Amino acid sequence: MSRPFLLVLFLVPFTPFSSLIAQGFTFTKVADTSTAVPQGSGLFTAFSNMVSTDSSGDVAFSENNGGADDGIYLWSAGTITRIAGTDTAVPAGMGTFTGFSFFGNGLEGGRVAFRGNSAGAAGVYAHDGVTLMRLADTSTAIPDGMGSFSGFTTAYVDGTSYAFIAPGSMDQQGIYLHDGMSLSRIADKNSTVPDIGGVYGWSSQLGFDAGNIAFWANVAGGTQGGNIVGGYTPGGGLVTLATTATTAPGTAAAFTSFTSPVDLSGTTVVFNGSYAGGSGIYTTDLAEGGITRIASTTTAAPGGGGNFTGFQVVSIANGAVAFVGSTGSGTGVYLFQEGILRKVIATGNLLDGKTVTSLFISENSLAEGSLAFRAHFADSSKGIYVAEVGEPVVPPSSTKAAQLKKEIKKATAKLKLARKAGQVAKAKRFLAKLKKLKLQLRRL
User: CA 31 to CA 9: how far, in whole Å?
Assistant: First the structure.
């Protein structure tokens, strides 16, 4: 979407990127190592893997160099605001923050969720645009567990609810939900892993949307131990979506491992899976199951470089999938949208008049209309940028498929709103429509 920008930030003209702009991308600098830190003492010097955006185009990021300017920052309408810093008092705690999340954090509707450290303690916190609040810290009793939490990784936001993974003493670990008022357990190591049994062991990251959760886990014991992709819905509970016994689409081989993080939008889950001789990016559905390949090491990377050789972080929003992929000529950020795979930007390209050497996204980097990423440059500078995502140019032969995908996207959004509003009858109608549209698409 078109947004007004203050003079402190600018829309880069990007003459070298005319081909990318023609494909529907324009780029805006959020902050770089020449940007003054608000309420700070100098310039930004380093950025963590926390790069999150939402449907309004806002971007949350963090400074992470171990210095006085470390903190969580929000860019909105061209202005950077500090959410929390090393001189910010810890809510319901003691002293000030000493450090923050490195991994991607939650951002939705101006609400930011993150992990914060303080002297001898840690916790997960949220800022609702006005107030900074504690969700849980190392003095918080574990719901349906023993004792208090012993640490945290990061936190995610969906509406006014928050989710996070956290451990406790005696090898406790679980996924927990804060509904804005109280804390509850979604799953822990006492939960039965659906279909295969065994004991969950989670990574630090998860996907959280429309009340649903998706996650990577390593399962000990059971009938099929090892990596899995799993999920949770409020109505259906826990579900196992893919295991090392699941065949990778387009091959005769089973998956051998999965890579954290996974992400989801509505009930659609995206993940990075490996199999003997290759790997790929895939989607599945919490309710319907089935696995669809988005790209793999047999896929030619758009923009050149030959086939993909590997994949990193994934992000999904309203049917579009963003990921970092490697080729023989470097690494790039790619977007799969309306059935079309496009290069957004790659190493060796010029951005802001500088040569890109590294690119990073998080599981929260993609939202409707926006894709946020971190870039490193040949001159050793670094920056946070957001790409405004336009509609891809659809070949005439793909018109029907593209139209169905647009209708699926709209129906998914309406289903999400109906579920959030508790409109059961309306949600059932949209779910039925969604199934019909997906069936039509598969028959093309």
Answer: 8
What backbone phi and psi angles, to 5 degrees, belong to 251? -135, 175
Q: What is the pLDDT of residue 96?
A: 97
How far is the C-alpha of 341 from the C-alpha of 441, rounded, in Å?
Answer: 17
Q: How far apart are CA 41 and CA 406, in angstroms?
A: 47
β-pairing, 310-317 with 291-296?
unpaired
In angstroms, the CA 236 to CA 255 distance is 25
How far, rounded to the nearest angstrom, does the alpha carbon of residue 432 sit from its chain's CA centroid? 27
Least confident of 88-102, 106-120, 335-349, 387-401: 387-401
Coil, helix or strand at residue 290: coil
pTM of the model: 0.85
Cβ partners under 8 Å of residue 1, min gap 6 = 57, 369, 388
Indicate if the alpha-carbon torsion angle 333, 336, 337, 339 is positive or negative: positive
| Region 24-190+299-393: CATH code | 2.120.10
Question: pLDDT tens digit string along 48-95?
Answer: 988 999 989 999 999 988 888 999 999 999 999 999 999 999 999 999
420 CA to centre of own chain: 20
Sheet with 155-158, strands from edge to edge, namely: 155-158, 161-168, 172-178, 183-188
| d(C-alpha 216, C-alpha 414), whole Å | 27
C-alpha distances out from residue 346 to 196, 316, 331, 333, 375, Å: 40, 19, 6, 6, 10
Report whether 289 contacts 270 (CB < 8 A): no
Using the structure block, give the residue that is written with the tokens 């804060």.
Answer: 178
List strands edge to edge, sheet with 278-285.
255-265, 268-275, 278-285, 291-296
Closest CA to 174 of 147, 196, 209: 147
